[in-house]
């Protein structure tokens, strides 16, 4: 190809301008001193539903995560700060620029060997384990695992037993008496839930997470506590005895009269505990914990050399010591799944 007779010089070379400017990039980030505090009540595909309280006004604001937060996870219950359009008007979108350090974290893993833990809910102070007494049958191992997760998270546990109109709750309650876990029994009569007032009192002024396997009546309970919740309810399969998943994501709902929060979660069929610190479980047995001083280093508290046996035999743990030790060890063993256990 023939070259042009004109010679090229530097004026013919086009240099792309530096779009980022000549100043070095600063690591400083905006302080966002005017950010508005809020609570995350729902998470859906990168959009966060938040609840903003300013004086006597309350509003729902949809937000997205600001880029400066990086890949930091945000879950239901998180206390956050918003900037941008925080009016809550249709079509508005704010930005979450700050996440307040969490006071409690409820976690689970896929199974007991999975090192990756998933944060379910933040900043709750009470874990409400909902179980039906029949149809579907209660799953003690799953309940035990939920109790372990509550102790590890520093949350207070509460058992709520449903469908007492179909069977006597006494035998089941007897299993958990040594654990000193408070329990509330509910039943359905003439379309009304008896025991609902007791549940409401237990949730008053608290941030409570409701967990349980499908079909136990958890969403029905939430709808009764928060009439405008409109959580979907399902039925139990007569063949498998299992309920249909009706809640697909966690959601935080304000109880009427500004009297606390209830967080409804999807039905669970397993609760991995690979992340659990065993010492936190023992801490919730103050009558037994002093006896661990006689345990060998690295004791799992479920072995022949465990010092707790001698502590209980000496009577130092009180008359309920043997039953309490059995319950503690039952919870510790909950971290180890039993092959073929359909109730796990």
Assembly form of the protein: single chain
Say what the CATH topology of the largest domain is: Rossmann fold
Largest sheet: 6 strands, mixed
CATH architecture of the largest domain: 3-Layer(aba) Sandwich
Can you characterise this structure?
By secondary structure, the protein is of the alpha/beta class. It has 3 domains: 36-99, OB fold (Dihydrolipoamide Acetyltransferase, E2P) (Beta Barrel), CATH 2.40.50.140; 105-264, P-loop containing nucleotide triphosphate hydrolases (Rossmann fold, 3-Layer(aba) Sandwich); 278-333, Ribonucleotide Reductase Protein R1, domain 1 (Orthogonal Bundle), CATH 1.10.40. The chain is 18% helix and 25% strand. The protein is built from 7 helices and 15 strands. The protein has helices at residues 140-153, 170-176, 196-203, 218-225, 278-283, 308-313, 321-333; strands spanning 36-44, 47-54, 57-65, 79-84, 94-99, 105-109, 117-122, 126-132, 156-162, 183-185, 187-189, 192-194, 207-211, 251-254, 261-264. The strands form 4 sheets. The protein has a 6-stranded mixed β-sheet with strand order 10-9-8-13-15-14. Strands 1-2-3-5-4 form a 5-stranded mixed barrel. Strand 6 (105-109) and strand 7 form a beta hairpin. The radius of gyration is 27 Å and the shape is globular. The relative contact order is 0.12.
């Amino acid at each position: 190809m023939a070259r042009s007779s004109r010679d090229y010089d530097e004026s013919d070379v086009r240099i792309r301008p530096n779009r980022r400017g000549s100043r070095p990039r600063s690591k400083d980030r905006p302080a966002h001193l005017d950010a508005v505090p809020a609570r995350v009540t729902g998470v859906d595909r990168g959009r966060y539903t938040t609840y903003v309280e300013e004086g006597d006004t309350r509003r729902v604001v949809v937000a997205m995560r600001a880029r400066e937060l990086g890949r930091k996870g945000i879950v239901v219950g998180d206390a956050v700060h918003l900037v941008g359009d925080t009016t809550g008007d249709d079509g508005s979108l704010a930005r979450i620029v700050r996440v307040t350090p969490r006071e409690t974290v409820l976690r689970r893993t896929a199974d007991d060997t999975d090192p990756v833990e998933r944060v379910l809910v933040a900043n709750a102070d009470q874990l409400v384990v909902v179980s039906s007494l029949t149809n579907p049958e209660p799953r003690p191992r799953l309940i035990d695992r939920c109790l372990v997760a509550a102790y590890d998270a520093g949350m207070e546990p509460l058992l709520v037993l449903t469908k007492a109109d179909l069977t006597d709750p006494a035998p089941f309650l007897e299993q958990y008496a040594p654990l000193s876990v408070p329990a509330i029994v509910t039943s359905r009569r003439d379309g009304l839930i008896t025991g609902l007032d007791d549940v409401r009192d237990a949730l008053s002024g608290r941030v409570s997470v409701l967990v349980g396997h499908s079909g136990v009546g958890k969403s029905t309970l939430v709808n009764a506590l928060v009439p405008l919740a409109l959580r979907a309810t399902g039925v139990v399969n007569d063949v498998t005895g299992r309920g249909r998943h009706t809640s697909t994501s966690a959601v935080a709902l304000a109880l009427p009269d500004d009297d606390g929060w209830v967080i409804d979660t999807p039905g669970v069929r397993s609760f991995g505990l690979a992340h659990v610190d065993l010492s936190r479980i023992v801490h919730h047995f103050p009558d037994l914990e002093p006896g661990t001083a006689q345990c060998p280093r690295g004791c799992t508290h479920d072995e022949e050399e465990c010092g707790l046996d001698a502590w209980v035999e000496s009577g130092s743990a009180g008359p309920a010591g043997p039953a309490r030790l059995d319950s503690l060890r039952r919870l510790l063993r909950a971290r180890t799944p039993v092959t073929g256990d359909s109730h796990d």
